[in-house]
Structures are given as C-alpha cells and as structure tokens.
Amino acid sequence: MKALSALIMSMTLLGGSAAASTVFTETEWQDYLSAYVSPEGRVIDTANGGISHSESQGYGLILSALADDRASFERIWSFTSTELLVRDDGLAAWRWEPEASPHITDINNATDGDMLIAYGLILASRAWSEQSYLDLALPIVQTIGETMLVTADGLPVILPGAEGFDRDAGEGGPVLNPSYWIYETFPVFAEVSPTINWQGVSDAGLEILRRARQTTAGVPADWVQLEDGRQKPAEDFPPEFGYNGIRVPLYLMRAGLDAEAIRAFRKNAGSFGMGKVDVVSGQMLEPIGEPGYRLIVAAMDCVLDGKPVPQDLRSLSATSYYAATLQLLLLDHLRRNSPACLVEAGS
User: Fold this and answer.
1) Residue range 35-92, pLDDT digits in tens
2) Where are the beta strands (DSSP E) in 8-94?
3) Helix residue ranges per DSSP H, 213-320
C-alpha cells in the first residue's frame, strides 16, 4: 500500500494539473462556494429544484482539491459520506432532496457520480499527501469495476446505475450514457485497481463516439444502445443530445483525447453555444447558452483551430450550478495546459 500511495502521489492527475497549486482566483472560488455549497457541505443543483446528488458532490470534491481548499473539501466529504454513502454496496445514492423526508428520494446509484467522488478523493490524497483519502477511494473504484461494468456489443461499458439500465439483447442491450465516460479517470483507476480493464472501458467510450460520427447528427444521444456495430438512441428515451452530452467534449479536452471526436461536437454547436440536438434529424432544438457552456465551444475552437477564447469567458460566471462547474473545470484545464487560449492573438 505504501508503494501504491507513493505512485499516486507522483501521478499527474486531472489533465496535467498540479492540484495543490490553485489556478482559480479567490473571487471565482468564493463566488462558487457562496452560490452552490451550503455550510454543511451540500453542493446544490440550483437549476434542478435545489436538490443535491452524487454528481454534484463529486464535482465539489474535485473542485475543492483543485482550489487547494481542504476545509471545503472536508465539509463536502462529510455531507457526501453521511448523507449519500448509505447503500449496502458502498456506492452513493444519487438523489437527495432538502424538502423530502427521508431526504434520499432515489437510492439507486449514478455511476458517474461514484466515479467523480472516487476521483476527488484520489486527487485530494495527492494534493495533501493524505493516505486516508486514498483508502476511502479504493473500495469505490473496485466496486464500480466489479459491479458497474458490463458487455454491450462486445465492448466493456459503464452501466449508468445498478437498477434500470441492464436490458437484455432482445431489448437492445444495456442503456448507456456517453457522458459517463470521464476519460481522465481511467488511467488513475487503472493504477489503483489494476485487475479491471479500465483502458478497455476508455476505448469503448471512444468507439461509441466513433460510431456516432457516422450518423446524421454526428454526436450520440444522451442515452444510447449498441447493436451490430452501431450505436442508436436508447428505446424509451428522447433521441436527443443535450445537457448530459455537452460535457463529453470537455472530458475529451481535459484528457487530451481524439480531436476528430471533438470536431464532431464543434460542428453541432451553434454560434452562441452548445445546444440540444435531435440526433435523428440533426436539427438544433434549443440553444444551451450560459457562459459555462459557451466556454466549451470556445475551448474547442482553440484546441482545433487556435482561436483564442473570448474575453468574457475567461473567468467564472456563476449563473447555475452545472454551467459554473463545467466552466471551472475547463478554466482549470486551459490555464494549466493551454494558456495561449486565454490571451489575445499577438499579445
């Protein structure tokens, strides 16, 4: 365990970031905490009825480690561990509602939330040389690998949750969500849980995106199924690319992966921002235009074509929990790894 801990402490995590040296301004981080994190450590989804979920708590852990704010990390972890980690398998219940009694209104897990929580703990173990965080992360990673990975059309894929998604071949196979592939986590998980084929899982996510590029829309629906070498919108789900899928290019950029996949997402982004797309017709249904989402488009322009990010997107705009979270994750990546994207050409 000591050798493993030393390895993790020396790894480069989160797209090359050095977690103990924050790139967030004090104003940005305090604005985020004030808007979305309660005193007891609940990360609040302000556009979704003020609920909290395993995803929001996981993002909060990651951002706190990136901000080098151990006090905030500890209170977010305290809420997460006591309020959400109540399942028998050690994964997190995904939905917590402040006005409900009991507060947990869906005990099912959301695997991306579990992945984010584990990753935040591993990042914190590196940032503050704290073995206990790594010890907490390991069983979560192992349980994900042993229980949330299934085979679909010959590929090792991520089941979105323990209940409701694992359909048999007669029903088109498992229902998948391409945005649950958080690509930067897989090399880290492979180090701490080497018995699981995390590289194969990563490759399967890229294969889903490759298959999507052959379709009319060029990008996958938020919920898909795999069959006979193809991907298609999942039965009983809207055939739409939307708020789930907008983070896929962010995850690709943070992991330094697959420019062709990123280009497909840029092609389907409107001039104002990402949008909800009917993947059958390729028609834009509605713009998704908060600053955090527009930054994803601007970052793609820089990664693909060298175009600097517009000035108004170079700092946090705390408009809603999800948009602000994605904006901070991408600002972290750009400031650390692509600072030329955040300066005017020729300056």
Assistant:
1) 999 999 999 999 999 999 999 999 999 999 999 999 999 999 999 999 999 999 999 9
2) 52-53
3) 248-255, 259-267, 291-305
Give 225's contacts (C-beta < 8 A, 6+ positions apart).
Answer: 152, 167, 172, 173, 174, 175, 176, 231, 232, 233, 234, 235
Q: Give the C-alpha separation, 274 to 285, whole Å.
A: 11
What span, in angstroms and rounded, lies between the C-alpha atoms of 35 and 319? 9
**Contact indicator for 107, 87 with CB cutoff of 8 Å:** yes
Dihedral angle of Cα 295, 300, 305, 311, to the nearest 10 degrees: 10
Q: Which pLDDT tens digit goes with each residue over 255-265?
A: 998 888 899 89
Token pair belonging to 336: 């650390």
pLDDT at 268: 76
Number of alpha helices (DSSP H) and beta strands (DSSP E) in the chain: 12, 10
Structural tokens at position 261: 């996949």
Beta strands at 104-106 and 274-278: parallel, antiparallel or unpaired:
unpaired
